[in-house]
Amino acid sequence: MKGGRITIEEKSTLSIYIGVGIAVVLTALAIYFFVLIQKEKSETTGFDPNRPVPSEAVIKGRLKAEEYNVVRRGGSETPFQNAFWNNERVGIYVDVIDGQPLFTSLDKYDSGLGVPSFSKPISYDIVVERPDNSEGMQRIEVRSKRSDAHLGHLFGDPKSPTGRRYSIPSAALHFIPKEEMKDKGYVKFLPLLDKK
After folding, report:
1. Which of 61, 70, 55, 75 is nearest to 147 (CA)?
2. How far apart are CA 112 and CA 183, in angstroms?
């Protein structure tokens, strides 16, 4: 630097340092956001029984208003106007809160009521059945044992292969089609769809 002025060589060197600095900062930000996205994906993809159930604040932030109303407030949905009442694709239905597989398409049947109906859960150990005398009715409420999500109600039904009908609002479930199960972290549940 001669006489307080920056020379062309110094400008060139300074420009290189600034450019490298900006590149380093942008690379660091890109890596940071990539790690955040991967962390969020691992927290919401597939089912891991060792992963804790999300906090109530996280659940409320992730779920749509209708989903939250069903699983946390015991709400219902309109028959014949919900996502899965007439879904005939092969796959599994998982808990909207923690992704735990609850029902298979092989156990789904048309009850004629306009809500997803299943003859049985994947395992009776993953649901809790308890008396529900609300709204002046005697019913059996079905809840997810792990996430404590309200899943719906259990009724007797002669149309069901087991004589039992699990009426589960679509808003309590996410559907994972068989062809997407591997990519979404459910590969170990594929044999459930080979039973029949």
Report:
1. 55
2. 33
Three-class secondary structure of residue 153 per DSSP: strand
pLDDT digits 0-9 by tens, 79-120? 999 999 999 999 999 999 999 999 999 999 999 999 999 999
**Please, which residues bridge with residue 140 across strands?**
131, 154
Q: Give the CA radius of gyration of the chain.
A: 25
* Residue 142 CA: distances (Å) to CA of 14, 42, 152, 186: 68, 28, 5, 23
Is 48 among the domain residues?
A: no
Task: Mark 144-165 as b/e (b = at least 16 C-beta within 10 Å).
Answer: bbbbebbbbbbbebeebeeebb
Q: Are residues 157 and 184 in the same domain?
A: yes
Q: Where are the alpha helices (DSSP H) in the chain?
A: 8-44, 56-62, 65-73
DSSP SS3 for 45: coil
pTM summary value:
0.77
Assess contact for 171 and 64: CB atoms under 8 A: yes
State which residues form the domain around 28: 1-43
Residue 83 and residue 170 in contact, taking contact as beta carbons nearer than 8 Å? yes
